[in-house]
């Protein structure tokens, strides 16, 4: 009686030392930066060094019906890359080549494992730029940015990942390689599977290559503005007034009082007047100075105390306050970083809802917002110790408050997640937004790509 | 023995005078503006006046397994809306309301039947603008623009339909209504079905509503430039030099000698020097004048004879030459208007290929190009009489030449269709571009939405 070889045996035979079963590697693959870790111990981490390695891994996974979780740099905030017991963590981090940069066509062809920041440093030498700029850009991969449909600070003016990817090379669950999309600016041949893969969180296949749509570095000066307001509602109303004025800032970030206080404390700055909220804006391009002056007038009229500079270093120093939000939250405890988005005009109303949730659930929820596109990051801060498995559980009373906040965002015409994705943390609310019919249709579409359901099972759709 | 009522009987019982079986209506539904008409006589034209009418039509179609072809204004150029024998033409042209315009959120919610031009006239009153501008914008519907993933002249700077739609209301084959996408700038909840529906040519459902992403009308002047060159390769090389220079014109259109000659003849202008090709460009926004001056220098250095104006009326007069291309072609015979796209740097090489195809197939192929995004419209002109059914058939020798041209575009890294879609005219080349595996996967995805295959059968995927 012959025994079927196990997935691990087959992986080792095919991929040798690319198959990693060291306990520290397996444990690291259980978590991302969401604070959540999967239960159990992964089967192995496969460090793919080629597209062929990815295909071979998927063929073995299909033959043995073994789940596979694709992983880049592990910087996700929704648990989408967390790998659980018996699952293969397929790392594409080492596939980090830039295969082609075409300044004349404004495209680059890259492997998925390159860091967003490294790619942009390389593109800068050509006067080029890939616009998506998640706050994690120094540590997150382009493949991960695509898999989550990442956003960032500059999105309202320069677009999100969906606007900046022309084609994707995708390895299917059974190991076949598909080339989706095109190298041209326009192209409508068949269904737009490139867009379908963007933000699909590892459910449809393994992204092993991408053709990116580039921009030229914006010429001209950069002007930076900060404006402080007596309370967060006034700041949110002022940001909506900027949008309504027709001026398009490159960046418009909002920090509420709890966020501003925590960051000032971290950076050793003066304690802000209680309640003070702040907007930080940048304008760029040929009309940067005129736009900054116009924004100054709108913010001053809205009751703001405005500081404006056209010095790039001074501007970066002002923006550093916003960029210090994540480290500041870490000084307060464990943070569940949420990610709702609402229509821009609903931003003041959403801050009212956050204040209500704080009152009713007796919590402080420091919140920053990409105010230019209505995307808010409420931080639910709590004290928690990892359990014996290293898993940090979000306490039920925090989920109750988050549930209240999610439904408030949906009532205001908003969405559960603007840029982080659903992963494991938000799957139980997914059908609330999509409706049952669409939820089921989306599941069926995923099954066309992955009939056995071995790609990132339990993420996004499973409750 | 009771007989199952026919689809027509059920439609009449449910929808009364919205069911149109006049011979002239049925005949009109067989064709679009591609020059191709479907064989046979449609069962009926249903003029839906509400989303409920669309749902009822689809429920009856599903119950009776009757094919349905959704139709807007019938301005397609690939035969996608042509309705054949025994099929229902479901017209959403009368669903033309603008349900909501939100200047503060830069969104509009519209029904599918509104004409692109009518919508933009209405938005202009608010200082707003929906950027996709197909040449047909005065006569084509927003729903049709979405169904084909339309492009236009301004795409290189302002984007295509895919960049300008946030959400779609879709009636499925069985009559269920889904609300896809969101009202927010960012949103990554689940799979991006909105993008999947854009350009899906009626295969996935009936678009009954859309949430559009608007822009503000661009302030400042508009500068227009024309440059003539001794031959089309020089004009194509000059257009690539403009792209490579980093200046982003709003419009950059190229006309080859045969196109320019035909338009001059139509408009009663002087006969151009033989071989002369022309670029027409516009710049807009705060840096319009500086950009026009920079473009002038690039074009002059590339050997062009340049005319430049910052007068809007003069500029429109120059652009009118390009806009007269379609009527000029109609004076030459029946035209098969093709639609390949190549990476911008490959534009000169693609014009070399067109010249080769002209030589080898002994044809003249007047060609215009949206040179800013590498999208070419070669016009295969031929003499043809409609047959007894009113069907104009493209002769085999024209298809042979088109086949040669399509494969040349694919070899240059291009695509079969930049903005017109596959419809019936290009379905036999679809697998050449997608590959067999992706072709089959796309078919399976369509079947998830439409298990019986009653939505626009025979289009896109069928050979």
From TrEMBL, chains A, B:
Keywords: FAD, Flavoprotein, Oxidoreductase. Transmembrane segments: none annotated. The keyword Transferase does not apply. Its cofactor is FAD. Residues 38-217 form the FAD-binding PCMH-type domain. Coiled coil: none annotated. PANTHER family: GLYCOLATE OXIDASE SUBUNIT GLCD. This is FAD-binding oxidoreductase.
């Amino acid at each position: 009686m012959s025994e079927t070889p196990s997935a691990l045996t087959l992986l080792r035979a095919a991929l040798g030392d690319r198959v990693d079963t060291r306990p520290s590697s397996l444990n690291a693959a259980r978590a991302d930066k969401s604070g959540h870790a999967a239960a159990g111990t992964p089967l192995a981490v496969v460090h793919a060094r080629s597209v062929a390695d990815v295909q071979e891994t998927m063929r073995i996974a299909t033959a043995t019906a073994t789940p596979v979780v694709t992983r880049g740099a592990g910087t996700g905030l929704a648990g989408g890359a967390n790998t659980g017991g018996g699952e293969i963590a397929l790392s594409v981090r080492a596939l980090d080549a830039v295969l082609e940069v075409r300044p004349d066509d404004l495209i680059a062809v890259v492997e998925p494992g390159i860091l967003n920041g490294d790619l942009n440093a390389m593109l800068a030498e050509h006067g080029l730029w890939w616009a998506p700029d998640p706050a994690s850009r120094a540590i997150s991969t382009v493949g991960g940015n695509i898999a989550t449909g990442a956003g960032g600070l500059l999105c309202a003016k320069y677009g999100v990942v969906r606007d900046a990817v022309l084609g994707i090379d995708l390895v299917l669950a059974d190991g076949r390689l598909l080339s989706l999309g095109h190298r041209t600016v326009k192209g409508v041949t068949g269904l737009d599977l490139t867009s379908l893969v963007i933000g699909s969180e590892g459910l449809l296949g393994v992204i092993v290559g991408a053709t990116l749509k580039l921009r030229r570095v914006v010429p001209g000066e950069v002007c930076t503005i900060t404006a402080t307001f007596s309370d967060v509602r006034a700041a949110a109303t002022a940001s909506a007034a900027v949008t309504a004025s027709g001026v398009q800032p490159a960046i418009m970030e909002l920090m509420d009082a709890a966020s501003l206080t925590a960051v000032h404390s971290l950076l050793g700055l003066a304690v802000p007047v209680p309640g003070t909220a702040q907007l930080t804006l940048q304008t760029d391009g040929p009309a940067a100075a005129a736009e900054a002056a116009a924004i100054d007038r709108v913010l001053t009229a809205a009751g703001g105390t405005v500081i404006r500079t056209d010095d790039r270093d001074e501007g970066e120093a002002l923006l550093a306050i916003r960029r210090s939000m994540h480290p500041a939250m870490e000084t307060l405890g464990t943070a569940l970083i949420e990610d709702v988005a609402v229509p821009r005009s609903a931003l003041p109303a959403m801050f009212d809802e956050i204040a209500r949730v704080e009152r009713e659930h007796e919590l402080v929820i420091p919140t920053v917002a990409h105010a230019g596109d209505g995307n808010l990051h409420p931080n639910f801060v709590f004290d928690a110790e990892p359990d014996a498995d290293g898993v940090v559980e979000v306490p039920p009373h925090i989920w109750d408050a988050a549930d209240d906040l999610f439904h408030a965002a949906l009532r205001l015409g908003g969405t559960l997640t603007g840029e982080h994705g659903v992963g494991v943390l938000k799957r139980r609310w997914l059908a609330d937004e999509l409706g049952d019919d669409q939820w089921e249709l989306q599941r069926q579409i995923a099954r066309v790509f992955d009939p056995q359901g071995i790609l990132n099972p339990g993420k996004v759709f499973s409750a």
